[in-house]
Each structure stands twice: as C-alpha cells, then as structure tokens.
C-alpha cells in the first residue's frame, strides 16, 4: 500500500521508502543496486589506484550508509511526530545518499567549478605523506599529515635529515615533490616487516596502522577487546561466530538475541500470530509452495 492510502487510515504513521533512485526524477522507475550507484554517482571514479581503472568499494557501502540514513530519518520523524502529532513519508534512496557522502570531494568541486583530481589509491591529494607503503611482508599506512608528524616519521625511519630538506620541509613542498618522497619512504619501509614497524612506531605520536585483511581484522586484539565478535549457538550449525553490535551504551547491553533463522523457521509464527491466518490456511500455502 502506498503512503497516501495508509495516511488516510492513520496520519500518524511514518512510512520509509528505500529505493535505488527515489520517488521522483528521471531515474525513479529504474532498478538499482549498490554498485550501479557507486558507478554513476562518483564513488567508483574516486576509488582505485592512481593510474588504474575505477573500482568498486570492497563492501556494499552505499547500501549500508543508505540504511543508516533511513534509520536516522525515521528517528527524526518520530521526534517531529512527538511535536506535531503527524507522521510523514520518508523518501530515501541510494543515489541521494551516495551523492551526499561524496562529502569534501563534492564540496571541492562545487567551490572550484573544476573536475576532481581523480583516484589516489591510499594517498591523499593534498597531504603528503599520508598513504600506505610496502613493508617486507605487507603494507603499513603512515599519516605524516603535518610538518610535526612528518618530522616524527623521518626520525623513526632513521632519516631525520629529510625533515630539514627544502624539498620536504613544508607540506606544499612535499606535495610538489610527492613521487620522489614516496619512493624514498617506501625504500625504507620495505626493509622491515609490518610488525617490526608497528613496534618502532608505538608511542611515537605518529598516526599509523597495519593494513590487515578481513581475518586479521577479526583476530585483531582491539577487535577482541571491544567484543566485536561473539559466539552463539545455532540450532543446526552448533556454535558459530558472528559480528556484534558496534555501539556501546552506558545504560544498556545490546546483544544478539537469536541466531540467523533457518529457511521458513518463523513462517508459522508470523502468519498465525501477526497475519492471523489459520493453521489450515498456512498448511495450504506451504503445500502450494507459496511460503517455506
């Protein structure tokens, strides 16, 4: 049922529509997945190595951010209803959210009137050095985001003289001599393992991070300390590990209330207690393959 129909029955209802391209505009009837929106609304163009082709983000980030925007808009509508007594229709779509989350990149283009600077891999277009570098066995991200931090980095690399070199003494100069400096840094980081660099940089005040794969992330000591992985019992699979809710509350303890459902596990419960169908009707639907 559309919003206008249910609004006549109960004007307090809050109705959220989540689509690829929204309820209006030339694409409103077009089907859309996350990756299509990433492609057409700027994100894919900004993602990938400097000289490589556009690539999609490793997870369906536009789907996820659209869900978060929808959740926030529902809460805002609930607050508005508390003041006005009226519900409203929330038109949430992937293309709008993707455009909004271009953030500083979009604002730069709007202000300059010029095209963006394209893909930068892990690097930053206007801050150097601020990117990933190869180590002897992987990669490490180094954040020499200002002159002071660059000085710390030079010291830890055993190259304090770089911070006084006229070619690198300010960020503007480092940007101007980006390629040369990046190659020099990587020639040093490649001499040690990632773990060795983590120990060297610990407590230095320099922002840095190992570049981990997914297993490394889930096994990470900080991930475990924050309780981001839980083990629950599944009726068919036995103990399984799942991701935890990411927000910690001071007066509540959000938990995983039930394991992922089996196909059709709650069919009877939903159709009988929520929809109000009889057991005979439910069985008839099952026998016809309408429900599982």
Features of the shown structure:
3-stranded antiparallel sheet; formyl-coa transferase, domain 3; extended; succinate-hydroxymethylglutarate CoA-transferase activity; CoA-Trfase_III_dom3_sf; 7 strands; 292 residues; alpha+beta; CoA-transferase_III_domain
Brief rundown of the structure:
By secondary structure, the protein is an alpha+beta fold. The protein contains 14 helices and seven strands.
Topology:
Blueprint: H1 3-9, E1 15-19, H2 34-40, H3 43-46, H4 61-84, E2 89-93, H5 94-100, H6 103-112, E3 130-134, E4 139-143, H7 147-156, H8 171-176, H9 178-189, H10 194-201, E5 208-210, H11 214-218, H12 221-225, E6 229-234, E7 238-243, H13 267-275, H14 279-287
Parallel strand pairs: 1-2
Antiparallel strand pairs: 3-4, 4-5, 6-7
Helix pairs in contact: 4-5
Describe the structure.
The chain has 292 residues and is of the alpha+beta class. It has four domains: 3-112, 3-Layer(aba) Sandwich (Rossmann fold), CATH 3.40.50.10540; 130-211, formyl-coa transferase, domain 3, CATH 3.30.1540; 212-260, no CATH class; 264-291, no CATH class. 42% of the residues lie in helices and 12% in strands. It has a three-stranded antiparallel β-sheet, covered by helices on one side. A two-stranded parallel ribbon has the order 1-2. The two termini are 24 Å apart.
Spell the H/E element sequence.
Answer: HEHHHEHHEEHHHHEHHEEHH
> How far apart are the termini?
24 Å
Name the CATH class of the largest domain: Alpha Beta
Number of domains: 4
Q: What structural category characterises the helix and strand content?
A: alpha+beta
Nearest-angstrom radius of gyration?
A: 26 Å
Main-sheet strand order equals 3-4-5
Q: What is the H level of CATH, i.e. the homologous superfamily of the largest domain?
A: Crotonobetainyl-coa:carnitine coa-transferase, domain 1
Number of strands: 7
| Proportion in β-strands | 5-15%
Shape: extended
Number of H/I helices = 14
CATH architecture of the largest domain: 3-Layer(aba) Sandwich
Determine the fraction of residues in helical runs and give it as a percent range.
Answer: 40-55%
Main β-sheet: number of strands, strand sense, barrel status?
3 strands, antiparallel
The residue-averaged pLDDT reads 96
Topology-level CATH name of the largest domain:
Rossmann fold
GO cellular component, one term: mitochondrion
InterPro entries: CoA-transferase_III_domain, CoA-Trfase_fam_III, CoA-Trfase_III_dom3_sf, CoA-Trfase_III_dom_1_sf
GO molecular function: succinate-hydroxymethylglutarate CoA-transferase activity
Keywords: Transferase
